[in-house]
Amino acid sequence: MICATRQSSRVLRCLMLWPLCPKLRLYHQLTAQETQVALRPFYFAVHPDLFGQFPVERKVNEESLKKLSEHIQTIQTGGHTRQNTIAFYFRNIKQKNSGIFQRVEIKLKADLRETIVELLRMCGLSLEFIDSIQRNGNKSRIPRQMFGTSQWIREWEKQFHQEDAKENTKSHLGSWLQRNVPRAKENAINNQPIRKETEKLKRMLIEELGLIDIVWDSDWRYCHFIACLKSFYRLLAEQPVTMKALRGRCLIFTQVTGVSIHGNVLLGKEEVPHNWFKMITNIKQFRDIIEVIPTYEEMLSSYLNNVEIKQHSSDPHALLYLKQLQTLVGSLKKHHYDGDDPKLLGDWSYLQLVVESGAGPLSLSPSGQFSVPTSCPASLVIAFLMQNRNTAQERIHKQKLLNIEEKSIIEQCVYELELHSLKKENNISSADMIYCCRRLHKLYMSEMASNVQLLQGANINVSTYYAVQQDGTLTVPWNWTDL
């Protein structure tokens, strides 16, 4: 008993020291997620879809993006890289003439970080995010604003698609709506031709390829969606035979290219059509991957007293998810056979666990789900679950009640304020959404009827900032201030 107690104490002490002691952590390499976020402003500057009227520049950028993608993939898989030189054309946002481009030549390096820094530096783009990732020690935490709402993305969107930059979240909601609702309605009217063209092209592709559906899984607006559809249509015209493999599937434009665990086809909205084509030609190989995933989920659950395994998203990338499962299962299996783990008591089927990428933190979410990075030692995972299982159970129960209340207050706001839609972004918790909706309902139902009419037919998106989107959506912070 004493030995077991000492062993448990050592594990818990290691758990507390894990974020603090460099000796307990591996040398930090850029993860796939960090690489994608760091390169997002660069993709915005050089993506071929921005050069539709300039075929020479478009062709150069498309070929260079292919080489860059292959170079990054080789580094991430541990292969041998060649230090080639690639060229890009990009438009400086300070230049008013849309036909003037700058050409830069960049030497690809064996170090992924150095390559990314060089790409951003040569194009005059911010190094803020890449500098925030330390080479040694601290686990990386990607700030929320890096996912689609940061200033550099807004600047590029404003240049190419007339999007609005963020506004101060301290603005008063009532006065902000009075100023911006008319502009939002005008944007919605002006966006109708783009929306109609997008829906027409979408229906045509579904019928021609026999698809179940085409889904736009992104916060980006319709102008980006139609650009992706047109790129896909050109690929269909060039490779009609290969595209027959998509029949009976759902096509989802999202963050990365691949096949989901449910067999849906994922196309990265920031990638060039060549990468889409390479994946589609090998689409049958994903069938074996999808079939083996449930087996690994069951193995992971069995090592942790039947804990329920949840996916990070509703339909994750099959290959990436399988690799994460294999890594974590392998770590737990070795730890189990070494006989080092403490005795796991009782049934943990009431707990929920989400497998994260290697760079994420070991944590318990407000909704009660354990987030477990694949790089975390098995002993720390087990100790963390044992220490926090009661708290997790309480949070899961609380989250179920919050989900019911959130759904109810959203429906009430939509009905009584006569909104067209009321949604939230993924980084807004149920508690924050409820808080926002209650105050919104109270504010407008306590004022004159004319104020309610101001929001008639409006599309409201709850986030952390103010913005009027190109399609007329009003984005407001959940913690807006009163008059």
TrEMBL record:
Q: Which GO terms describe its cellular component?
A: mitochondrion
InterPro entries per the record? DUF4460, DUF4461, TCAIM
Q: Which domain of life does this protein belong to?
A: Eukaryota
Task: State the protein's name.
Answer: Uncharacterized protein
Organism listed in the record: Owenia fusiformis (Polychaete worm)
